[in-house]
Design a protein that fits this description.
heterodimer, A: 311 residues, B: 286 residues, 2% strand, globular
């Protein structure tokens, strides 16, 4: 009984790790490779989750539903809806400096959340959209395979991108923008591409999240869960390193889950609110990582140049 | 028309609260070259410090204000010494992430100490003054006067004292300022202290105007940054102007669109500024 419970928890845990790993990979494309400081992850996460929720649920009077599309169509929809949004955001912000980009993206995330909160006809407002099915009638175990497949595919795609000439240009922009411009690269265009690809990966993560949890509401897309944890994951794992991003997702989600137990041990009178205490701990943890090991668990390694032999 | 004037009054009130926050944010931005994402939560914690003084010592809010400002200034300097100072030389973006983490730590700290429910400084209804068809709460006048006094204080500090001049010099041209022997570390400390104190004042006024809530500062962060950018980064006077413009625009927008989209209005102004005049109204230094 104990073991079965533990197993069920492990499945639940690993599913979420996988979903966060996908988002961390998307962020790595933007921040780790290109140096774009996007703290609006929650916005793209929400777009993905709501799109698939609307596309795959049955008819309802409370929200725009009734498309009854299959799971994969929902995910494709998530990416397709995210595409023009990310393009528009990227277009406005591609030329901005890091701090402006940060402010702009957090604004967009908040506005997307406000939009889903206020446009009840579309998203059922604060009450959210329930009853999003897992594909093929699988349980958490079967869904883990689906998530694992998507993590694998995403990792393969971003790793190929990282080693490609395209990835080299992105890193060159990050490390030395004037030199890259002097080499004749259209910086704004490359930045825009990286931003759109990264955001669509985040949207895909949002879609998978919606099908896993089965319910979406604006509450889930507050900056804390949507944005902050993903950032801690990438920084802790090692930005610029795709394996590091995934390792970070695992480690940070492990720590985040265990703070729940830790918060359970400390008397409530001392800490007031359990969830606040957890956020407090994770915030302190990030500060410690930033001060003591800013390169993360797995620091970035430069991929071999074409024709270069590894010794 | 009456509605317009009433909204304008509300807008100026919100604008003066935003201006106080934006002056601090813009000075930190100018001297330290990073957007301080914990500024809104610094406002919130200042408001809660004042709440403790009000409830424990049974004082009026205005008497608690200096205490809250002092405590928050100390807190801001403390956070800088413990966290930001150590990573200042690495990369400015690391500072951004760290300030994001600070924001969450402060907010959860508020929830742990004071709880997550709404709080007010004084219970009971304040009878508004009626001037013809317009209404004005005595608190509103108080906030406006106190904000004006603080802004004049900042002006005098920046133009009359050596430290204020050093601060402006560092904001204008960091390298030149350092070559002339300005004590950078002390200027940075003063910047945090003043930024923290003004943030606390903004938080207290916001709490007087509406209510206290752990996310009260976070929701104003975006308008504050919008005011900072609109006014020109590193320009305290621009920040005041930007704050007033954003505050009025946010309130007046409710004539046309639902009030829940107010933050979006601030954001739209910011985006338009970034596209057409990225240096802000008064040419920014960064």
């Amino acid at each position: 009984m104990e073991l079965a419970g533990l197993g069920a928890y492990a499945l639940f845990f690993l599913n979420l790790v996988g979903i966060y790993a996908i988002m961390a990979l998307g962020l790595n494309m933007q921040w780790g490779m290109t140096g774009q400081f996007n703290i609006g992850i929650a916005g793209f996460f929400a777009v993905g989750a709501y799109t698939t929720a609307i596309l795959t649920t049955g008819p309802s009077d409370n929200w725009l539903g009734g498309f009854n599309l299959p799971f994969l169509a929902g995910l494709v929809g998530s990416v397709l809806v995210c595409l023009p949004i990310a393009w528009a955001v990227g277009r406005i912000t591609a030329r901005l400096r890091t701090d402006y980009l940060a402010i702009a993206t957090i604004g967009i995330a908040e506005i997307i959340r406000l939009f889903f909160l206020n446009e009840g006809w579309l998203s059922n407002g604060t009450r959210g959209i329930p009853g999003i099915q897992k594909p093929f009638g699988v349980g958490n175990g079967g869904y883990l395979l689906v998530v694992a497949a998507f993590v694998g595919l995403t990792w393969l795609a971003v790793e190929i991108a990282r080693r490609s000439p395209w990835g080299r240009v992105l890193r060159a922009i990050r490390d030395n923008e004037p030199a890259t411009a002097a080499a004749g690269k259209d910086i704004a265009r490359f930045r825009l591409q990286a931003f759109v690809v990264g955001s669509c990966i985040m949207s895909l993560g949002g879609g998978l999240y919606a099908h896993f949890v089965g319910f979406v509401s604006p509450e889930a897309f507050r900056p804390l869960y949507g944005t902050f944890l993903v950032w801690v994951m990438l920084i802790a794992g090692g930005s610029g390193n795709n394996l590091g991003a995934m390792l970070g997702a695992l480690v940070v989600w492990l720590i985040w889950s265990s703070t729940e137990m830790l918060a359970g041990l400390v008397p409530t009178a001392l800490i007031g609110s359990e969830s606040a205490f957890r956020v407090f701990l994770i915030g302190i943890l990030l500060q410690i990582i930033l001060v003591s090991r800013p390169q993360g668990l797995l620091p970035e390694k430069r991929p071999p140049m074409p024709g270069e032999h590894r010794r | 028309m009456i509605e317009f004037i009433q909204l304008l009054i509300n807008g100026i009130l919100l604008g003066s609260i935003l201006a106080l926050g934006a002056v601090g944010a813009t000075m930190i931005f100018g001297v330290l070259r990073f957007a301080h994402f914990a500024h809104g939560d610094l406002m919130a914690i200042g408001a809660y410090f004042a709440l403790t003084v009000v409830t424990v010592f049974n004082l009026p809010v205005l008497a608690a204000l200096p205490v809250a400002m002092l405590l928050t200034a100390g807190l801001a300097v403390g956070i800088d010494q413990v966290v930001y100072r150590r990573i200042r030389r690495v990369q400015p973006v690391i500072l951004l992430i760290a300030s994001f983490a600070t924001a969450l730590v402060l907010r959860s700290f508020i929830q742990m100490v004071w709880g997550s429910s709404n709080e007010v400084y004084e219970t009971g209804i304040q009878l508004p003054w009626r001037i013809g068809p317009l209404t004005l709460k005595p608190d509103h006048l108080l906030i406006f006067v106190a904000a004006t006094v603080l802004v004049i204080g900042v002006h005098l500090f920046l133009t009359r004292t050596k430290m204020g001049k050093a601060m402006r010099a560092m904001s204008d041209n960091m390298n030149l300022a350092l070559v002339t022997g300005i004590p950078a570390d002390r200027v940075i400390m003063w910047t945090w202290a003043i930024g923290g104190a003004l943030a606390a004042a903004a938080g207290v006024f916001l709490g007087m105007d509406t209510r206290l809530h752990p996310v009260m500062g976070w929701t104003l962060l975006l308008p504050i940054f919008a005011a900072t950018i609109l006014g020109g980064i590193g320009r305290p006077y621009g920040a005041i102007l930007g704050g007033l413009v954003i505050g009025c625009a946010m309130e007046l927008s409710t004539l046309i669109i639902p009030g829940s989209y107010k933050p979006a209005v601030a954001f739209a102004i910011m985006v338009v500024t970034l596209i057409f005049r990225p240096q802000g109204i008064i040419k920014g230094s960064v």
